[in-house]
Write a structure and sequence with these properties.
mainly alpha, disordered N terminus, two-stranded antiparallel ribbon
Length: 95
């Protein structure tokens, strides 16, 4: 059954919410898992910023994605997203 609200079909809601989340920078744990899947991860230590060093990238990713998956407040998730975005930038720069 397709329900329409303001000319938006129910089937279109999920992609719309995803695009809105992307525009605000709110990627999910699954989005980050997909982003890191199949890419060659650098060997540690990796410096994300001044005073932020990642000694083991695999352990770091596991912990950060777990926080995104289980965190209940956006205030907790925001710095995690920054760190994961920064790691993706570092990987892109090294190519």
């Amino acid at each position: 059954m397709v329900v329409e609200f303001f000319n938006v079909r129910q089937a279109d809601i999920k992609p719309f919410l995803y695009l809105r989340a992307m525009s605000k920078g709110y990627l999910t744990a699954e989005d980050y898992e997909a982003a890191f899947h199949g890419i060659e991860l650098p060997q540690g230590p990796i410096e994300l910023g001044q005073g932020a060093t990642v000694p083991d990238v695999h352990v770091f990713l596991d912990k950060q994605i777990t926080i995104l998956r289980t965190g209940t407040h956006e205030r907790v998730k925001e710095p995690v997203r920054w760190r994961l975005d920064r790691l993706l930038e570092i990987i892109e720069e090294s190519k």
